[in-house]
Write a structure and sequence with these properties.
Elements: E1 6-9, H1 16-27, E2 31-33, H2 34-42, H3 46-53, H4 55-72, E3 76-78, H5 87-96, E4 100-104, H6 107-114, H7 127-145, E5 148-151, H8 157-171
Parallel strand pairs: 1-3, 1-4, 2-3, 4-5
Helix pairs in contact: 1-8, 2-4, 3-4, 4-5, 6-7
Length: 172
């Protein structure tokens, strides 16, 4: 079977990059982030894409990056927080048969991790209110595509990584 050994989804500040990188290192495989793929392909940041071209344009680029990474990458793959908004992406994730871990975080933990980040365009104005709205709207989508849910709020990274590794080993 080709494709990622693990796909990590979740909202901004859930720990997808931190946990994904640590899990990839523990498994001895590569780590790939679809937001970084979009930035590399366009030569600009996600934040600048939102400002310059708008969210719909970014979401098209993101969906293409996810499809490419699901086909090409054989390590740990982290998706941008909004990637699950695409029905095509959700269908690919469900059909992939891969372990998809939803890193679930509460509003308070996510807000403290994000702060007033300029790198997260959807959270620039009122991070706590936007996170609450985002988490409520996206939770059913994360649940739809995930095979495992791992809570991250108030937990040490090592504990979250251990839970994700256990999920990967259980699926193997």
């Amino acid at each position: 079977m080709t494709g990622p050994v693990l796909v990590v989804v979740g909202p901004p500040a859930a720990g997808k990059t931190t946990v994904g990188t640590a899990v990839a290192a523990a498994l001895g495989v590569g780590f790939r982030d679809t937001d970084a793929d979009v930035e590399a392909a366009t030569g600009t940041t996600v934040a600048d894409l939102f400002v310059t071209h708008g969210e719909p344009h970014f979401r098209e680029l993101e969906a293409a990056a996810v499809a490419r990474a699901l086909a090409e990458h054989d390590g740990v793959l982290a998706l941008g927080g909004g990637a699950v908004l695409s029905p095509a992406t959700r269908q690919l994730l469900v059909a992939s048969g891969r372990t998809v871990v939803w890193l679930d975080v509460d509003v308070a933990s996510a807000a403290s991790r994000v702060g007033l980040s300029r790198d997260r365009p959807l959270l620039a104005v009122n991070p706590r209110a936007m996170l609450r709205t985002m988490l409520e709207a996206r939770a059913p989508l994360y649940a739809e595509v995930s095979t495992v849910t791992v809570p991250t709020a108030g937990r040490p990274v090592d504990d979250v990584v251990a839970d994700v590794l256990a999920a990967v080993q259980a699926a193997a």
